[in-house]
Design brief:
About 45% of the residues lie in helices and about 20% in strands. The chain contains 12 helices and 7 strands. It has a 7-stranded mixed sheet, sandwiched between helices. Helix 1 runs parallel beside helix 4.
Length: about 270
């Protein structure tokens, strides 16, 4: 039932240039803090295109382990890292978050999973499984969809889109992008400027992200207060977050959007 994320990431990887890499590095610095990864072990759960594993290596990570359940994502990540980080200390392989064990891979100073755990079909269990890979005193950085009033509608749309024909998917993207253009026009914003600004967000591509958003199934979402309660319960303390708190974020008319979190493991996980 999972959407074919790997095909979308392979298409995105064709467009990756130094600009996208630089933006991915800046995005990771914004979330983790500059100079934070030097010599550390970094686990990328749901590595997608591999660009953030690459960013971690660029920021001095001592070792990067990247995993994904989609074989196409694994292949794409390997090719990207081989091209841009040959000779660096990294491993990429196919594995589910539910099959990660410290006994096999050891603990990590930084576990990273951006926009992934809400697509596993069991988000709460996935968060706990990812969290157990963090070493004492280490950090867990992740992003999850913000719960909105329209989440049930989007869940149904995604289930349809993930099984729709190519023509059906293309039509849905056209409608979504057209409505987005009209929304920007109504607000006095230029669509081309919007696209250019979008590319500065973690080095992502708007059109690939539209496909990812419309098709991202399974789909779950969560509010920041629920994240805080859960992380505290398993022995993690808040470091920083970037959450959506404007009124439009409660509705979710054009999408849910991700809240970003960083938590530190202070005690043994329950």
């Amino acid at each position: 039932m999972h959407f074919e994320f790997g095909v979308n990431w392979a298409d995105y990887a064709k467009r990756v240039s130094q600009l996208e890499i630089d933006e991915a590095v800046e995005g990771l610095c914004r979330l983790l803090g500059r100079g934070h990864l030097g010599g550390k072990r970094f686990l990328d759960i749901g590595c997608g295109s591999g660009i953030h594993s690459l960013a971690a290596l660029k920021l001095g990570a001592g070792e990067v382990v990247a995993v994904d359940i989609d074989p196409q994502s694994v292949f794409t990540s390997k090719m990207l890292l081989q091209h841009h980080a040959a000779g660096s200390n990294y491993r990429v392989f196919e594995k589910s978050v539910f099959d990660l064990y410290p006994e096999d891979l050891g603990f990590f100073d930084l576990v990273y999973s951006w926009g992934v755990l809400h697509h596993t079909g069991d988000m709460y269990r996935a968060i706990r499984r990812a969290a157990r890979m963090v070493c004492p005193g280490g950090e867990f950085a992740f992003a999850l969809y913000h719960r909105t009033w329209l989440c049930p509608v989007w869940r149904a749309e995604k289930k349809w889109y993930s099984k729709a024909s190519k023509t059906g998917q293309s039509t849905a993207r056209f409608i979504y992008i057209t409505l987005q253009v009209l929304r920007l026009w109504a607000r006095g914003r230029n669509y081309r400027d919007f696209i250019d600004d979008y590319g500065r967000h973690r080095g992502m591509c708007y059109y690939n992200d539209v496909h990812d958003w419309l098709g991202g199934y399974p789909y779950e979402s969560i509010l920041p207060d629920d994240v805080e309660r859960m992380m505290n319960a398993i022995g993690f303390s808040w470091v920083r977050h970037f959450v959506r708190d404007q009124f439009s974020a409660k509705i979710g008319l054009f999408g849910t959007g991700c809240d970003e979190y960083v938590y530190r493991r202070a005690i043994s996980i329950q």
